[in-house]
Design a protein that fits this description.
With 435 residues, this protein is of the alpha/beta class. The chain is 44% helix and 11% strand. It has 17 helices and 13 strands.
Amino acid sequence: MTDETRQAQPFPLLSETDLSLDLDRQRHLAKKLRDAIRAGDPEALARLAARHPRAARLKAVEIRLTDAQLVIAREAGLPSWPALKAHVEEIEAARAAIEAGERTPDGDVSTLHIRCGNDIEQALTRAGFTGDFLMVADPVCQGPVSDGDAALAERARFIASEYPEEDEAETLRMLQVTEDRLRNAGSCGRIVLWFEHDPYDQLILAKVLTRLKNSIAVRRKVEIVTLDRFPGISKFIGIGQLSPAALRQLYGRRRAVSDADYDLAVRVWDALCAPTPLALHGLSSTPGTALPYMSAAIGRYLAELPGLGNGLSFTENAIVKMLHAEPLPWGKIFGRFMREVDPLPYHGDLMFLGTMLRLRDARNPALASTPHDLAEADWGKPVFSLTPTGREILAGSADWSDCGPLPRHHGGVECFAGEDWRWDSANRRPVALKA
């Protein structure tokens, strides 16, 4: 499975973010901010208050350039001006190394780069990496998840039924190829994992680390590049946003996967496959140093359980709310959801469209749509609107479980069945409606 937000793109060596952090420009901005603070400009004073730890004790008329530089650095996502300076110098050194054709970063031993998509494959090549690349693209953050003999066939059926134009046989073949390559990854001298902080990445990471631990790969050098932000990017969504120079810089900051990382990954994977969400919820409430982004990712994932109030997941609820005022093209809904609504964005466009089609294709649908055309020129343009049932659900006078929704599994949990697990958003915990 692929989608538009995770497909590989050709990148220039530096991104707009890299260029915007040019040191001369940042020095100019710091001087401008200092002068504005001294002049009593309200916006400048607010920036000082928001970012400077000693703002309350500073007199505006006596503000120094170093104080303004600290604010500028923290607005860029770095703790200090020296850290900003070091970051810019590292990016520039990476760019210069690429342009000079210096020794490949991963050329010392045979290396396998693993990523949950192909969005950085071309950028890694552009950055001078020569190792093999493995895309693990099974979105286990949606649909049924199990670990038995029939698990891959179950995933292939789900992907083919949930995401338009996905072929079940080809999907199964690709899933099996991925499993085989993970099983044989120990033949590489080094394995590098590139995963960000969201549920899509973190849950695939749990599976990948579980597979690597169960193979001889755990005896090899396994390293990880993982992050939840990047200097200069106000809303960091993923590693695919980064330039080749930034990827080369990040590679220098990779770390070894620890025994604690492996142990947590196995526990998360087992909990994800479980028929109740309780074990997974327990892991979300115990953050630690191992896989530091896993806890928040699990919390966001659990919010996709049917909601306690009306049976809609977080994403489904956001969709019907955005359609309350007027019909909208689904591409516009998707963009607004990713930019403005989701606190931890992880959906690809196909994943999001699949969710909207579920709301449309129930016995008593919550949504209606214009004819659905998947042609590239019309991608994202079909218009969706709320049905009377959708308005009842939004008002709280109907529950989605009573509307004949298509069967849905969330990991190992069968939705609206058995104990009928729901997500209590107020208390951030799963509850069973049927004891």
